[in-house]
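Thread: Newbie trying to understand structure tokens

Hi all, I'm a second-year student working on a class project, and my supervisor (Dr. K.) asked me to get a predicted structure for one chain before our next meeting. I've only ever worked with sequences, so writing a 3D structure as a token string is new to me. If someone could post the tokens and maybe explain what I'm looking at, I'd be very grateful. Here's the chain:
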Amino acid sequence: MKTGKAYAFFNCNASKIEIEAELPTIKKLAQTPNQLEISLMGMTKNTCVSPFSEPELSSIIRGAREAGIRYVIKANYPNSTNKATADELSMILNQAYHSPLYKDKEKFVGEIVYKEKGKYIFRK
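---
Reply by user tm_fold:
Sure, no problem. This is what the structure looks like when written as tokens:
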């Protein structure tokens, strides 16, 4: 089995440093597997997932940037599927919303995408 990959695009008023400091606690509380590797990036005009990004993923990144999304988390999950990786990212975002990173009743904006049958889809 290959490594599952998924991407979470989301807004948060906290700084990148604050989010990175909270992520280990969030992962623990969400009970995500230790093998799940995540990396947080701020969305800038130069944000790309890799230098060889596929056009469809580049289009999603561009759309997120144009919509004012501030952050993206790239997740890799060895010996798993892309969908399972997206499900784990969903647990992380749900737990993050209930962390000190978000104020009470603050609106959450975010989407998770993963590749299935050759196309990127948004997790429902």
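A couple of things are worth pointing out once you decode it. The CA atoms of residues 26 and 96 lie 6 Å apart. The longest helix spans residues 82-97. Feel free to ask follow-ups in this thread.
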